[in-house]
Amino acid sequence: MISIRNLSHVIDGRPILHDITLDLPRGGITALIGPNGAGKSTLLSLIARLTRIQQGQITVDDLTVGASSDRDLAQRLAIMPQQANVSARLRVGELVAMGRYPWNRGRPGYEDRAQVAESLAKFGLTQLADRFLDQISGGQRQSALAAMAHAQGTDYLLLDEPLNNLDISAARGLMRLLRDMADAEGKSILIVLHDINYAAAYADRIVAMANGRIAADGAPDGVLTPQLMRDVFSSDADIIRVNGRPVVVV
Amino acid sequence: MRPVPLLTALLMALAALSLFTGVSNLTPRAVFTDPEATRLLLISRVPRTLAALLAGCALAVSGQIMQMLARNRFVEPMTAGAGQSAALGVLLATILLPGEPIWAKMGLAAGAALAGSAGLMALIRPLPPTQPLLVPLVALVYGGMIGAAVTFVAYQGDLLQYVEVWLTGELSGVLKGRYELLWLAGATAAATWVIADRVTLLALGDAAARGLGLNVTVVTAAGLAAISLSTALVVVTLGAIPFVGLVVPNLVARHTGDNLRAALPLTALTGAALVLAADIAARVIRQPFEIPVAAITGILGSMPFLLLLYRGRARV
């Protein structure tokens, strides 16, 4: 379980998070939604220890973020990198193999190769393993980054807006794979999403944030209401039900 | 076609050619019959060949490491401040510590190179990644400014002729007993292979690298130290040799990619071949006079550099 206790964060004198307390039990997909500047990405980067915690506490199972070693946490929790940040010319297989670093410190063994092969296969990248990242499509690159996070073999997986720049088929493909990782492999996935409809369709739980606070928390059915759209997103978008599922009419 | 055996064969051929190229005529046959020829070989030709190989290897490898640390393809230590800083360091050592042994001067040069490359990293960090051409621009201006400081200090101290020696690399002065520091440069380059995987992880961005449990600060510091030491050793022993660190890693990246564990051996071999070939050309073009090897690599290297910049812009 990821436990967040009384977490507050200030950047350049501007409060970003106010006294957040949140429990994310094992298993399932939790979607973080909210307008720009709500503090979603900051919360994610604090959990992933990419930003130093100023006030409050985060624990991942028995590990305390900020106190436990990077290596221990890297074996427990993976964060998917953003595509724009990969600066080097790497092959797909090499990138996915990097996910094994917390386990092998750069000396891959039999288990690592088996895990990399499995992750490549799961994300449909086996044929592309020897291609360079700049020779494949944006959707395939995103899959490769997700496969790398999968190869890390952690119980928890954090993703910050992974659907950016993906077309509908690639976006649905990635969400379906995440759904499968949660269902078949028992992974706990925390994902920041901009498109509420993807959150409604694929997440078990939605946490809506506004102005650094948690505005709503629960199953998509209960959370997504016209009231939420007004209060959190300042939008008069309507919510209808299609096949028993809430859908935002944009 | 496997590149490593091919490059090794090319290197051996170049080395053989280098041993028998120069002002004094030396034939393979004479080596075994004429003691004067054997002496020439051991005191001048072998050291010179080894110096070119070691320097090429060190320059190309430190260029590749710097490109990974800077997350930009268009920088290399020699032109981006580290080379000029090393020259400034050894110049200050000459003025302030005239009687000190070579390793003290070397230490100051390496320290100055480290400060120079750390300064560059701090300068380019805030630049937007969407504008990759800003990095080489800033790096060239920065290197030029330190180079100007070197010239100024040298002018004040009446040492302009010395400065020429450090700013323009050439191998005509290499003799047995005067190039051995380069073994340390070669060893430093070889040692970077140990951290190759870690440096490659930096390409994912600081956040993702830390997410994988990498100590980004330590790896960056180790990389910068290796770059600075190699650069300073080459500058003090031979003088600055530009563009090798830029062109070679880019060539290798096109073929093999940036996974350093696979790329570094290729980079080292290609760098060694390039500098040795340039030095052979430097001896042959104006026989019996010599052209500094830095002039050759400058000409050979600047054209691919412009091409890269142009192509890089088209891709971004």
UniProtKB/TrEMBL annotation, chain A:
It is found in: Cell membrane. It is a peripheral membrane protein. Keywords: ATP-binding, Cell membrane, Ion transport, Iron, Iron transport, Membrane, Nucleotide-binding, Transport. Gene3D superfamilies: P-loop containing nucleotide triphosphate hydrolases. Residues 2-236 form the ABC transporter domain. One of its GO terms (molecular function) is ATP binding. The keyword Lyase does not apply. It comes from the Bacteria. InterPro entries: AAA+_ATPase, ABC_transporter-like_ATP-bd, P-loop_NTPase, Siderophore_ABC-ATPase. Pfam families: ABC_tran. This is ATP-binding cassette domain-containing protein. It comes from Arenibacterium halophilum. The lineage of its organism: Bacteria, Pseudomonadati, Pseudomonadota, Alphaproteobacteria, Rhodobacterales.
